[in-house]
Amino acid sequence: MLCASAQGPQLGRDCVKTGSDQLARRALFGFILTFIASRTVVFLIMSRRMPNLYFFLGSTHVHHLNYGIFLLAGIGAYTLFWMPAGQAARIAALIYGIAMALTFDEFGMWLHLGGSYWQRASVDAIIVVAAVLGLIAFARSIGKYESRHVLASIAILIALAAFAVVLYDTSVHIGRLAGARLRELELSSSP
Question: Which residues contact 133 (CB under 8 A, 6 or more apart)?
């Protein structure tokens, strides 16, 4: 079996094939954690509980979908031209999930350039992408849940609980605001 390594393509038994379901689980893990982290950071910045970490190029706010696009381009080129296997493929799958979350979290902005971050289309896109990754990841192995998956499940549950707390706490502060006020708040968090 031919596989890629740091030294280039090689033949040998050290090359372990990684199944697409294992790679999809890594991508889904990175996708969910990155989506939760990015939304949490946005909520905390907008409620002024965290310093403004947004990146600006002049007066232009560089949204995180751009980071995701560059990561997708890079990881796509890496997987196409170097065809990683084993641990390298698992890392590439994780990076792919991170890039997908950064990009699809602002999917509504793809549709309505210059639109608000708070678009329903973005949440819908996240749900669809997560469902597809979940289907690829677990369709064949749902009946074979093993103990090694427990740590990943615990990490996701902790992240979801933390996200729920931040979401609730932030909603108390900005929940009274709606529509035009959310747009105004988004603009006011920019320099």
Answer: 24, 27, 28, 31, 97, 100
| pTM above threshold 0.90 | no
pLDDT per residue as tens digits for the range 4-20: 544 545 444 344 456 88
Task: Give pLDDT tens digits for 53-88.
Answer: 888 888 888 889 999 999 999 999 999 999 999 999
